[in-house]
Amino acid sequence: MGTFKAIRIDKADKGTTATLTQFDEAELMDGDVTVKVEWSDLNYKDGLALTGKAPVVRRFPMIAGIDFAGTVEQSSHPSWKPGDAVICTGWGMGETHLGAYAEKARVKGDWLVGLPQGLSARDAMAIGTAGFTAMLAILALEKHGLTPGSGPVVVTGAAGGVGSVATAVLAKLSYHVIASTGRLAEADYLKSLGAAEIIDRNELSAPAKPLAKERWAGGIDSVGSNTLANLLAMTKYGGAIAACGLAAGMDLPSSVAPFILRGVCLLGIDSVMCPLPARKAAWDRLATDLDRSKLSEITHEIALDQVAALGPQILAGQVRGRTVVRIS
């Protein structure tokens, strides 16, 4: 047993600290698969953990990072053998289980998904939890019956990780995408991903009326609070909104009106404990439905020693698209 580089989070007198250090392999938690981590990424939840702005981390010390892609080194799990290329997202990594910002990870084999054909490990982390969540939302809307012919689809937080991937995939699937953002300077970027319209998030941030003019057949929301309430109030009869985030808050100051007068549905999207069949389905769709050139446009690469500095920036909404972290 040796040591490896990792971003370690410890309790401090005031809050927490995040430090790039050497971690002892003997301190890795139980699991039947040990993975050499090659790539990770930066998500909103990672920003919360790195800064201590919310009680995301539930044990100390913790290795931060909720996503990784890499190669199996050791395995006693029947589905995996050394040399297999794998992805792991969610399952409490970086929260209750030692996470992904490290050269090694030990996890349960049941948490892993094989790297889909046509995707590199870097591609997988350019997608990461954000893109995976976006695809789960799209699958939920499709299951509800949404098609490009149903009408426009709104995407909130469109310049962020979930929003960027959602916009790109929906556009490739021929949907008319209305992208909502607080960064109107990113309009050209969003149009390059396929957005047909750009709206200012301020249009959706005021307290919502029980019902408003019908504007879209569906939507993907990563914001919550008044924004989600307005989305519901403006959804066409029989439409649906997939909710997957809370950047503006956990509250939902809405009414039952959209549900009982327009038959609108609110679809909850969870990517952390998502069952394995749904994970595989989402990753397979991402391998085919996300334009690789668009993925390149939304992706920025950093090294492991740069991660902690970006934590505050992603919380402030200053990080565009997806950030991949080169581990080894």
From TrEMBL:
Gene3D superfamilies: Medium-chain alcohol dehydrogenases, catalytic domain, NAD(P)-binding Rossmann-like Domain. Residues 15-325 form the Enoyl reductase (ER) domain. CDD domains: MDR_yhdh. It comes from the Bacteria. PANTHER family: ACRYLYL-COA REDUCTASE ACUI-RELATED, SHORT-CHAIN DEHYDROGENASE/REDUCTASE. This is Oxidoreductase. It comes from Bradyrhizobium aeschynomenes. The lineage of its organism: Bacteria, Pseudomonadati, Pseudomonadota, Alphaproteobacteria, Hyphomicrobiales.
